[in-house]
Amino acid sequence: MSTTETARGMHDILPQEMAVRQHLLAKLRTIYQSFGFLEIETPALERIENLTNGAGGENEKLVFKVLKRGEKLQKALAGVGDLADAGLRYDLTLPLSRFYAAHLDELPRPFKALQIGNVWRADRPAKGRFRQFMQCDIDILGDATLGAEIELLHATTAFLDAACAGDLTVHLNDRRILRALVELCGFDQAKEAQILIALDKYDKIGLAGVESELAELGQDAAAIARYSGYFEEFVSGDNDERLNWCAERLAGKLDSPVIDELGEAISALQTLSGGRAVPLLDLSLVRGMGYYTGMIFEITSSAFAGSSIAGGGRYDKMVGQFTGKDTPACGFSIGFERLVTLLLEQEQLSLSCRHAWLYDKSLPLAQIVQLEQRADLLRRDGQSVALLPLAKNHSYQRKQLSGFGYTDFEEFH
Question: Which of 167, 231, 272, 328 has the fewest Cβ atoms surrounding its Cβ within 10 A?
Fold first, then answer.
């Protein structure tokens, strides 16, 4: 017998939530397109070799794989080749890199891309955490200048401010600083990826928890102690003092003007945000994806108890995996599902007026047609008018419709 339950980790979207989602998407498209981002779409399925090339970090363990079909599957079951030849995308960045490499001659340079679509991760489901969820990304490909990061930060903070996402803090760091820090502390550089994953857990487990994680990785106790001391020194200062700390402690370990770029980004964001977002140099910011090569950033919000609602960074090596030539690239993704949850819980969304015209079931068809003609006049002005048969329990019908955003009621007998 069939079941009404969704597959584990999936969820149905009711009309109330759908209205919020469409409202946010319309606002997002309007703002991002005003910055010149061009919307594209990539397939939900990607070749398995692309999804498991090492760039996706921990997310590669969460890929929903698609089995081969027919004779190819039979051969794979007999031990000839892998069982899967495709998988559902776990984010939008890898598909974008493939898309850009495939259509390079058809796209403007630099290319400013907007992507909106579902992604899938075989994660453990929890409250507010699903295996299918929507991502909304903006990326700039072909621009190696700091202007790309600034534009991404500017556009995203503008959207989040318009979406009533609370007081925003923009956390900034750089993967090159983190690599220099690993060397400075004396960690085993062969385990850099695992070490960075441990450092990334600071906001969840605190400094003591990070120390324990590093010890479990077999890192030297003296190196762990140096990291803790450096971290406490760093967090005690403001942005200028933190930049100075990096310049002094990491002198000679950085090959490019990384620290100057972070300072310029902080200054530019202070100018452009108009107070809507506060920049913060954050040594604990790592970003778990393995493809980041330069500056990284996340945005936290007072409305989410300080948790991240957007994140991204520079990934100059990913496109080169498809073309054989490195291409500068930088991107930002918002936590769309979290914004939807916020607006649903706080009932902050004010939708345009929606009319419910309730008519008696005994009304002649000719009069119903006349009502439809009257309703069309309002619909042409962009208003929503629903013609519905009047239920026996009028008050309950109105209450139910109010829950779906209807605010104006009229009865016809």
Answer: 167
DSSP state of 200: T
- Extract the tokens encoding 254: 């950085």
Q: What was the pLDDT predicted at 275?
A: 79
The closest alpha carbon to 44, from 133, 104, 168, 144, belongs to: 133
Residue at 77: amino acid letter: L
What pLDDT, in 10s, does the model give residues 164-203? Answer: 777 899 999 999 999 999 999 989 888 888 888 888 888 8
List pLDDT tens digits, range 306-352: 678 999 999 999 999 899 999 999 999 998 998 888 888 766 555 56
User: 342 near 393, Cβ under 8 Å?
Assistant: no
Q: Which two tokens stand for residue 281?
A: 């140099």
CA atoms of 172 and 287, how far apart (whole Å): 11
> How far does Cα 236 stand from its chain's mean position?
30
| DSSP H or E run through 53 | none
At the second CATH level, the architecture of 15-44+89-188+254-346 is 2-Layer Sandwich (3.30)
Average pLDDT over residues 80-106: 91
Q: How many residues does the chain have?
A: 413
Q: Which two tokens stand for residue 142?
A: 């072909």
Rounded-to-integer distance, Cα 359 and Cα 369, Å: 12
High-pLDDT (> 90) share of the chain, %:
46
What is the arrangement of strands in the sheet containing 65-67, beginning at the earlier edge strand? 45-47, 84-88, 65-67
Contact 89, 42 (CB under 8 A): yes
Q: Helices marked H in 110-238 — which ranges?
A: 146-162, 175-185, 192-199, 202-216, 221-235
Domain ranges of the chain: 15-44+89-188+254-346, 355-412
How much of the chain, in percent, has pLDDT values that exceed 70? 96
Q: What is the chain's mean pLDDT, rounded?
A: 88
